[in-house]
Specification:
The chain has 354 residues and is α+β, with helices and mostly antiparallel strands. It is 55% helix and 15% strand. It has 2 domains: 2-285, Beta Polymerase, domain 2 (2-Layer Sandwich); 290-350, Magnesium transport protein CorA, transmembrane region (Methane Monooxygenase Hydroxylase, Chain G, domain 1, Up-down Bundle), CATH 1.20.58. The model is unreliable at 1-6 (pLDDT under 50).
Length: 354
């Protein structure tokens, strides 16, 4: 997947700024557009992008949700209709960016990743979501065909909460908040894996499988932290912006998103500390296992040292060794060696070395 994205990005090389080229790797998914117009009294939703529909509902809050970024002609048409700056449209198609907030003359452009956790492969799958909020309109661009904003659309259609009573800035806040809430699910999934890993270490001790999972989860946690740090800066700018598009009454909700991102970063840092503890536990278990093996080998060596000493004495080739002429000397020596071995094993057992 990485090589494919790299090849796609190479197609932008040498092109002028604002050239629309999709750099992601979801080429197999066609674009789907949903156009919504609403106010406090009415809600209308159609499939596709219709200029006449937008003109008819000019006094409504209009929300165009694009799922799939492969149709660059369609995205260019939407951008032209709402006078979106070419650099903003270029950023919509230039996926894999860090979260950011850019301010333009006619609106605010918010780019952030939507994350989900792959339990089977222990990796974070990210899609880029771009949101442009202007005067009574919001454009949202999702890289994947999944309906990420289904809950927001349901709240809007059934007039649940404040969404229908507010303007486009509150809709943009709701979309950002919906994505940030999804980060909690990723954080919980990682925490569950950490708990299972810790339990496995206590149960089965240090093993190669646990070692591999430790490093995989470290990579995942670091990736999540790398995603969250620029997001904190972006939502803070969203909260503190001087744009006239943001109603001061809604800044309290934006501050709540800032708090959520700060909580998520604290959660990630906590998971990094837990991972460091698990890694230390793994090394301690491995050391204990090695120490146990070395202790067992030491006990065995200690038992055989006096036996080897006895055998070495009677293996000498001197003529004047009276015990060599004893009729039962062989059995006597074996008996002494056996008693010595049993006695030493009993002593080690009492000392709890075995």
């Amino acid at each position: 997947m990485g090589k494919k994205k790299q090849k796609t990005k190479l197609r932008k090389r040498g092109l002028p700024p604002g050239t629309l080229v999709y750099t992601g790797d979801r080429d197999a998914h066609p674009a789907h557009v949903l156009t919504i117009a609403y106010n406090e009294i009415d809600y209308t939703e159609i499939n596709g992008f219709d200029d006449a529909f937008l003109l008819q509902h000019k006094e409504f809050v209009r929300w165009i949700d694009v799922r799939g970024l492969t149709d660059t002609t369609l995205i260019e048409k939407i951008g032209h209709e709402f006078t979106i700056h070419p650099l903003a449209l270029e950023d919509v198609l230039n996926t894999g960016q860090r979260a950011k907030l850019d301010e333009y003359e006619n609106g605010l452009f918010f780019s952030l990743p939507n994350l989900r956790f792959d339990h089977d492969n222990l990796e974070i799958i990210a899609e880029q979501v771009s949101i442009f909020v202007g005067n009574r309109f919001v454009l949202s661009f999702q890289e994947d065909p999944d309906d990420t904003f289904a809950f927001i659309r349901n709240r809007c259609s059934e007039s649940i909460g404040r969404l229908r009573k507010k303007s486009s800035d509150y809709l943009a806040y709701s979309l950002v908040d919906n994505i940030v809430d999804g980060y909690y699910l990723v954080l919980d999934d990682i925490e569950n894996h950490l708990g299972q890993l810790e339990e496995n270490l206590h149960t089965n001790g240090a093993n190669p499988v646990s070692k591999a999972r430790i490093f995989e989860l470290k990579r995942v946690v670091n990736q999540l932290r790398q995603r969250l740090l620029p997001l904190r800066d972006a939502v803070t700018r969203f909260y503190r912006t001087d744009s006239e598009l943001i109603d001061d009454a809604n800044r309290l909700y934006l501050r709540d998103v800032v708090d959520h991102v700060a909580q998520l970063i604290d959660g990630v840092d906590n998971e990094r500390e837990i991972l460091a503890g698990i890694e230390a536990l793994f090394h301690a278990e491995a050391s204990n296992r090695l120490n146990h093996s070395m202790r067992l080998l030491t006990v065995i060596s200690t038992i055989f040292i006096p036996l080897t000493f006895i055998v070495g004495i009677y293996g000498m080739n001197f003529d004047n060794m009276p015990e060599l002429r004893q009729p039962n000397g062989y059995f006597i020596v074996l008996g002494i060696m056996g008693c010595l071995m049993v006695g030493m094993m009993a002593y080690f057992k009492v000392k709890k070395w075995l």
